[in-house]
Amino acid sequence: MLTVSHEAPMLADLMPWSVPPLRMGRSWVMAPEAATLTARWDRLVTARGAEREVLFRPTRARTPRTAVAQLPGHPAPTTRLEREDGPCADPVRVLHGPYDLQWLIPDHRLIDAARPELWRVADRDRQVYAVEIARLPQLPGPPLAFSALLPDGHSPAGRPGRIRPLFRRPGGRDPNLAPGLLDRLAERLATPVTAEDVLAWIAALATGSPVEVPLTADPALWAEGVALGRRVLWLHTRGARYADPAQDRPAGHPRLPGGRRPYVRAALPEVPREAPSYDPGAEALMLGSGRVAPLPEAAWEFHAAGTRVLGAWFERRIPAGAADGLDAIAPGAWPRARTTELLEMISVLALLAELRPSRRALAARVADGPRIGVAELRAARVLPVPETARRPASVLDHHEEGPDGQFALL
Questions:
Q1: Residue 26 region, left (φ>0) first, then alpha (ψ -120 to 50), else beta?
Q2: Nearest to 146 by CA among 227, 202, 87
Q3: Out of 145, 285, 308, 322, which could bridge 98 as a Cys pair, Cβ 3.0 to 4.6 Å?
Q4: DSSP codes joined into one string, 253-287
């Protein structure tokens, strides 16, 4: 008789293809507002010779003379940057770190390691990225973040994680799952299982560093976990994925119920010069003379890789010292849209914090119940994963421009 181990499979085996984080090489290519990036670009291309070189901030990977191919899906020119005098490529929204929405210039000439294979699989409707939040085991915070936007994979703890797209091709094609996993789960649970279901289960139950994902063999627990994970993913993607109004997941940015929504109670300063603080008695975020309330303490204390998420969000917008070069080009006053983003961030963090007890309770019930462990997946030949599943898809449906306008051969 076969003795089945309940050892939980690793995320790296369930979602075998992964990409390292982006490596920018220069901080000025990303900013909280798109207008800041176009202003920085305009300053760069009006500079000439040595001044442009200094503003650009060369590295071994990128100088104004580096020849590189186009980023997939983004028609920025591929002429050498030293000869560039055209307009800025339209900035795109990206996820910086686990929770911060930023803007990025999608120009391969500006980014040391842009990970083109990640850009190739982006799409507006189906793709979701699981982002490992690399951390030390003793640090508080979840092990994964999720995004419908392309993530840069930055870790607040400074230790790089991995980015795992749900699909290996645009349009929801070729799930990035261990071959045979969907069929094995469907057979064991006696219910249809989709790639989106598996990611929802991962979102609800993933734990540890490196990340493990316990798999239940109980159909009722599976359904409960998938439902919980869908809410987690809806929150992480700001309502862009897993929306279902019938399940209290409307399309659009998640909002706290009336009476609990945060508002600006006292106007935020036009030029904040200090880090925010928290008044637990009033449930208020204090920024100079400004005040935002109510702010649940769980949202204020929400951590990722040992770093307070709201604290890191403000650090990106209130520099501790004087910036120089292109980084010094920034809004002269606090933009109104930035306040809206802050209120939205508070809502997402508060709603995610509310799910922690449900996730802990579910994890305990899964641990006490029947499970699908590594030994069973090996017996079903789902594991070990073939090396081909750990590599990106190689067939593209479009041409990509190489350096100096030539087509790239792929």
A1: beta
A2: 202
A3: 145
A4: S--PPTTS--EEEEPPPSS--S--EEETTTTEEEE
Quote the pLDDT of residue 209: 83
> Is the separation of the CB atoms in 216 and 373 below 8 Å?
no
Determine the Cα–Cα distance for residues 89 and 37; give it in Å rounded to an integer.
10
- 173 C-beta neighbours (distance < 10 Å), count: 12
The structure tokens 């490992």 sit at 132
Consecutive H or E run containing 53: helix 49-56
pLDDT tens for 99-125 read 999 999 999 999 999 999 999 999 999
Contact between 242 and 156 under an 8 Å Cβ cutoff? The reply is: no
* Strands ordered across the beta sheet of 100-104: 30-31, 100-104, 92-96
Extract the tokens encoding 204. Answer: 């609800």
Cut 0.85: pTM above it: yes
Please name which of 122, 154, 123 lies closest in space to residue 24, comparing C-alpha atoms: 154
Which residue, chain included where needed, has tokens 């006490």? Answer: 368
Nearest-angstrom CA–CA distance, 214 and 368: 11
Do the beta carbons of residue 285 and residue 300 sit within 8 Å?
yes
pLDDT tens-digit series, residues 40-82: 999 999 999 999 999 999 999 999 999 999 999 988 889 999 9
Report the alpha-carbon distance of residue 295 to residue 308 in Å, rounded: 14
